[in-house]
């Protein structure tokens, strides 16, 4: 009986995880939208978070299929996947520079503005 109450409390708390997480995502979303830029945010990191969230939802669904329990875990994992997906979409949408890098790792526009990179000889013909 005491174990069942403990499991109910744990399920309730697990169900609250997405709501708490949502409060953590809001400032990031607000910053991206307000600045209309995501240049300082790592796209690679958010792709890894997306993969991690996909694995978590797979695990939660498998647990439910095997044991018949874990709806709170499915709920929290699914919402985490949604929140990460929204963040990733914002990062991609507000990515300022979509120009490819040149051989020095500069954006083409920046390379055109630069007179010469330090240590690179530029002839004045």
What does this 3D model show about the protein?
With 125 residues, the protein is mainly alpha-helical. It has a single domain, classed as Monooxygenase (Up-down Bundle), CATH 1.20.1280.290. Helix content is 70%, strand content 0%. Helix 1 runs parallel beside helix 3 and helix 2 (43-67) runs antiparallel to helix 3. The longest helix is centred in the N-terminal third of the chain and has 34 residues, at 2-35. The N and C termini lie far apart (88 Å).
At a glance:
The chain is mainly alpha-helical and 125 residues long. Helix content is 70%, strand content 0%.
The helix content is over 70%
Computed Rg: 23 Å
Known CATH architecture: Up-down Bundle
Order of helices and strands: HHHH
Our estimate of the beta-strand percent is: under 5%
The chain-level mean pLDDT equals 81
**CATH level 1 class label:** Mainly Alpha
Category by helix and strand content: mainly alpha
**Shape label:** elongated
- Number of DSSP strand runs: 0
Largest sheet: none
What's the total helix number?
4
Please tell me the total number of domains.
1
Distance between the termini: 88 Å
Query: Which regions are unreliable across 5 or more consecutive residues at pLDDT < 50?
Result: none
Q: Output the CATH topology.
A: Monooxygenase
Please name the defining characteristics of this protein.
4 helices; mainly alpha
Summarize the topology.
Blueprint: H1 2-35, H2 43-67, H3 71-93, H4 108-113
């Amino acid at each position: 009986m005491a174990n069942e109450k403990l499991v109910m409390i744990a399920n309730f708390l697990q169900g609250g995880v997405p709501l708490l997480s949502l409060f953590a995502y809001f400032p990031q979303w607000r910053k991206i939208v307000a600045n209309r830029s995501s240049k300082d945010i790592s796209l690679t990191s958010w792709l890894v978070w997306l993969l991690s969230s996909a694995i978590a939802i797979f695990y939660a669904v498998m647990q439910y299929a095997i044991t018949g329990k874990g709806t709170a875990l499915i709920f929290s994992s699914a919402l985490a996947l949604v929140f990460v997906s929204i963040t990733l979409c914002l990062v991609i949408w507000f990515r300022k520079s979509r120009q490819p890098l040149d051989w020095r790792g500069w954006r083409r526009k920046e390379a055109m503005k630069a007179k010469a990179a330090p240590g690179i000889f530029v002839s004045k013909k």
